[in-house]
Amino acid sequence: MSEQLTYFLEQNPSVAKSICEKSILAQRAREAARKARDLTRRKTALEGMALPGKLADCSDKDPANCEIYIVEGDSAGGSAKTARSRATQAILPLRGKILNVEKARLDRIYANAEIKAMITAFGTGIHEDFDITKLRYNKIILMTDADVDGAHISTLLLTFLYRFMPELIKQGHVYLAKPPLYKLEKNKKVWYAYSDEELDQILQEVGRDQNNKIQRYKGLGEMDAEQLWETTMDPEKRILLRVNYEEDSESELDLTFTTLMGDKVEPRREFIEENARYVKNLDI
Amino acid sequence: MNDDIFDNAPGTPEVDKIHEVDLKERMETFYIDYAMSVIASRALPDVRDGLKPVQRRVLYSMIELNNGPDKPHRKSARIVGDTMGKYHPHGDSSIYGALVNMAQEWSTRYPLVDGHGNFGSMDGDGAAAMRYTEARLSKISMELLADINKDTVDFVPNFDDTEKEPVVLPSRYPNLLVNGTTGIAVGMATNIPPHNLREVVNAVVKIIDNRVQENRDTTIEEVMSIVKAPDFPTGGLIMGTRGCEEAYRTGRGKIIVRAVTNIETLPNGKSQIIATELPYMVNKANLIVKIAELVKTKRIDGITDIRDESNREGVRVVIELRKDVNANVLLNQLYKHTQLQDTFGVIMLALVNNEPKVMSLLEMLKYYLKHQEDVVTRRTKYDLNKAEERDHILQGLLKALDFIDEVISIIRSSQTTQIAKDRLIERFEFSDVQAQNIVDMRLRALTGLEREKLENEHKELEIRIAELKAILADEKLLLGVIKEEIMMIAEKYGDDRRSTIGFDEFDISVEDMIPYENTIITMTSLGYIKRMTVDNFKSQNRGGKGIKGMQTIEDDYIEDLLLSTTHHYLNFFTNMGRVYRLKAYEIPEASRTARGTAVINLLQLQPGEKITAMISIKEYEEDKYLFMATKKGIVKKTPLSEYAHVRKTGLTAINLRDDDELIEVKVTDADSEIFLVSRQGMCIRFKETDVRATGRSSMGVIGMNLMPNDEVIGMQLRSQGEYMLIVSEHGLGKRTEMDEFKVQNRGGKGVKCYKITEKTGDVVGFKAVKDEYELMMITTEGIVIQLRIEDISLLGRITSGVKMMNLDKGVKIARIAKVRDRVENESGEEVEDIESDESDNSSESENADESEQTKE
C-alpha cells in the first residue's frame, strides 16, 4: 500500500505537490489556532491580572461606565494619561505603526506585543473565543494624530478590530476620537475648530485680522493635557465618531480590507488611481 | 449575541456628541489620504531635481544656515533641528537619515553633503549620533541650489505659515539620473540607479543640439548610445546592457551587477579570490556572513578562509580556497548564491506635476530640460528686471549730470528732500526712483572719472539688457545658455565611470558551476532515473552484481544504463515520437542503492507517454544522424543537428501515424547497416544509405513490410555485435551469426530469423551481442534471470533455440536486456576510455557499444 502510494505520488508530482501544500497550510493554521486559544485561555486563567503593563486602567470596574483610549505614540499617551478622567477612562498607548494583520502570518500576529496588549485589555478574546459579555470597556476609542500617519494607524487598528473582533464594531463599541484641527487665539480667548469649515465659521464671527493666532495641530503631542481633555476627551465637550457597518455590505467591506491592506499590490494601485481625485487631506 | 447589554446600564453619561460614520467610507478616506501623501510628498522624488521632500528641505535648510562648502562644518543636530522646526514636521531620525545618506559616498554617486565624522560604513554600520557628526553642503550641491534667490522656482508657505520653502530646486545638473533614488510608497515604488554626470550631461546636450541645430526631436537610441548603463558609486561590473536598455526604454528592467574580483595564486599553490568592488547597496558584512553560512552548511565547498581586509584605501574581501578547487567554478557559485552578484531592479518612477509616472530615460531627460528652460527663463527675467532697474537709475543720473547746474540749483532752493524730488520730477520727468537717486548722489559723482564710470556701466547694461531680451525671445539662445552652463558643471564635477560594462555572455548558467565528470545514468522500466558517480562502482561494487544492489520497486529493474559525463545532453525519446532533453547533471545524483527519481519529475511528459530510448550526446555534429524505427515498421533518418534545440516541453522527433509507436532510436554515421526484427520472427537487414535523410517532423519511410498483425520489436545496428540474440515469449532463445542475413533493400518482407511454434510463442526480444556480454531476461511476474551469452546456443536462422528459462504456466518473458559482462569491475576502465575519446566526440558510439544497451 505505502509502496504503491509512493509510486503514485512520484509518478504524479503535481498531485503530490498540492497534497503537501495543503497539509502544510493546514498544519500552520492548526498551530496558529492553538496559539490563539492558548493566549485567550491563559488570560482567562489569570482573569484581569495579565493586563498589559502599558495600560493605564481606570478605577471603575463596571464596564458599562468605562472607556479605553487607544493612543498613537508614547508622547501623546503621556498627555492622555494626565488628561483623562481616572475613574472611567483607561489609556493604552501604542508605539508607532502597529502590525498589519491583513498581511502578517498568524503566528507573527500573536507574537506582536501591541496586538497582545489590545486583546488582553479588551478582555473579550478573539474569533470563535470571542465573548462580548467579557468586554471590559463600553467604548473603545481610537485616538490618533490628525495627520496622514494618524490616518494610516487608524486603518491598521480598524483592520485588526474588523478581522479579529468584528462584533465590537457591529455592536457599536468602536469610536474614533476627533481632535481639533485648529486652535484660534484672539484677545486671550481660545476657539477650537474641528474642520476647515468650522475654522472659517469662527473666523467670520471673530473677524479676520492680524490678531488671529491660528495653530494647525499636526499631532496630539502638541496639546498639553488640559487642552487634550477639553477638546478631545471630556465627555461633555468631545465629539466621537461611532464606526459602524451594515451587515449586508459585509462582502463589499471584506473586499475593501483585502484591497487596501492585503498583500497584493496591483488592486491597491488601481484603488489609489481611481480615488486619487477624492483626496482631502494632503500632508506636505 | 446580546446587543444591548450596555444600553440599560445605569450611570452612563450620555452627553457625548456622537456622529455615526461608516467603516468602509472611513477606511477608504483614511487610506487614500495616507497613500496620496506618501506618494506625492514623501517617498518619491520630483522629476526635476530628483529630490524627495525631506532631502530638499535638508539642503534648503543648510543653505539658509549659510552652511556652504566654503564655510566650516556645522553640527548635524543643528541642521536637523532647523529642518524639522522650519520645514519638516516629522521624526528627527528620518531627517538625519536623509542627511547621512546624502553624505555617504558609497550610497550617493556625487554626495550632496560633505560630512565630517562617522557617517557609517559599507558594512551597514550606522552613522554616529547627530550630536557628534558635522556637515556642510558639498560643492556640487551649490549647483543644485544655484540661483535659488533669483525667483527661479516657486516657493510655498511651510507647515505653520511662518516660512517659505521651495517646491523644487533649480538643479542645474540632472540630479535625478545622476544620483538616482530609491523609495517605497504605497502601491508603487521607485528605484532609479545613479549615472555618470558626464554621460547624462552629454545626453542633455545631445537633445539640445538636435533641437537647436537640426530642429528635431531626439530618439531614445541616440540617448542610449550616450548613457549606456548606470554608474554606481561602488563601481562593480555591469553584466551587459540588455537590462539597461529595457529599463531605459520602458522605465522598468533588471540590471545585473557583479563584484570586481581577481584570482591570485599563492606561492603554496592555493588560490584566493579578492573582491575589490561590490555591487551597489550590498552590505559587505552581511555578504561575508552569507558566504560563511554557505560554507558551514556545505552548500559551497572549497573555501578555507574569508577575511575582510578593507581599509580606508578601499574594499578588499579575500576568499581563500582549498588547493584542489577550481577558483573560477567556485567564483561562479558565489555569484549565483551570494550578493557578489546582485540584481538592480530599475523602476524609473518620479513625480511629474506631483503625479507619479514611470518614464523612459528620454522622457526623464526631457522633463529635466523643460525644468531648466523654466529656471533659466525665470532667472533671465529676474536679471533683466534688475538690469533695467539699474539702467533706469543710471539714465536718470546721467541726465542729471547733463543738467547738473540746474539740478543743483533746484536742490539748493528746495526746503526739503521731498520738495526737491518733486521739482526735479516736474522739470526733467524723472521717475521717483531716479529722483531719489539723484538727491542721494554724492558730490564726487561730479568728477569726470565718475561720470565715465556711469557711462560705461550704462553701456554695459544696455548690451546686457539686449542679450537678456534676446534670450527670452529666442528659444535657441535659451537652450544655448543651458548647454553652456551644464557643460561647465560637467567639466567641473565630472569624473570617470566607476562601474565597468561587461558582456551578457557572462551570464552564469548553472553549467559553469558543475565540474566535468564521468557519470553513470540508469533508468528502470518503471521510469526511475538516477545519476551515479563512477566511484560508486569502483569502490563499492567490487564483485557484486550491480543490478541486485539497487532498491527498485517490486517488479522494476534497470532497463537502460549509460556512461556519460555531467555535461552531455541526454535525449529521451518517447513512444509518442517526441524527444525531451536534459543535461546529465540535471538528473539528481543518487547512491548505488537508491531507487532514483521518477523521470516525470524531470521531463514534462504527457499522460501515457513513456521513454523508449535514451541517447547521450555531447555535441550535435553535422555528419551524424538519428535513425528511428516504429512498431509498424517505419524508419526515418534525420540529421542529428535538427535536434540541437529541444524545448522544455519537448519536440516532435518523428511524425507518427495513428496507433504507431516509436520503439528505438540509434545514432548512426550514414554508413551503418540496420537490422529490424518482428514479433513473428521476420528479420530484415538493409543499408542505412537506403533511407534518405528527411526533416525532423517527417513521417519516414517503410523499413520493413510487415504481415498483418505483425509488429517490429527491435532495431539493432550491425556494428553493435557479432550475433543476433532472439528470445521468445515462452523462454526459448538462440543466437545466430549476423552475417547469415544478407543485405536487402529496405521495405522488403525480410527473411525468417526464428522458427515460431506453439512451444515458443512470439518473439519478444532481439539484441545484437558479443560473446562477452550477458543477457538478462525479465518475466511478466518480474523474475529476472541473467545468462552468459557464450552459454547460449549458436544456431542457424530458422531455428527455435533452446529453453533458457523455465516458466510457470501463463508466465511469459516480458523483456530482455543485454548487460556487459562484469560491468562493475570494468566500468572504471571504460570511463577512462570515454575520457580519451572525448576529443573525437564519439560518445554516442560508446553508448551504443561499450555500455549496456537495452530496449525491446
Description:
- The complex is a heterodimer of chains A (284) and B (856).
- Chain A has 284 residues and is of the alpha/beta class.
- Among the domains of chain A are: 37-176, Rossmann fold (3-Layer(aba) Sandwich); 182-233, Dna Ligase, domain 1 (2-Layer Sandwich).
- Chain A has helices spanning 2-11, 13-46, 74-83, 106-111, 113-122, 148-164, 166-170, 196-206, 225-233, 250-261, 265-275; strands at residues 67-72, 89-94, 139-143, 174-177, 182-186, 189-193, 213-216, 239-244.
- Chain A has a 5-stranded mixed sheet with strand order 2-1-3-4-8, sandwiched between helices.
- Chain B contains 21 helices and 41 strands.
- Chains A and B meet through helix 1, helix 6, strand 7, strand 8 and helix 10 of A and strand 1, helix 1 and strand 24 of B.
- Strand 8 of chain A pairs parallel with strand 1 (17-22) of chain B, so a sheet runs across the interface.
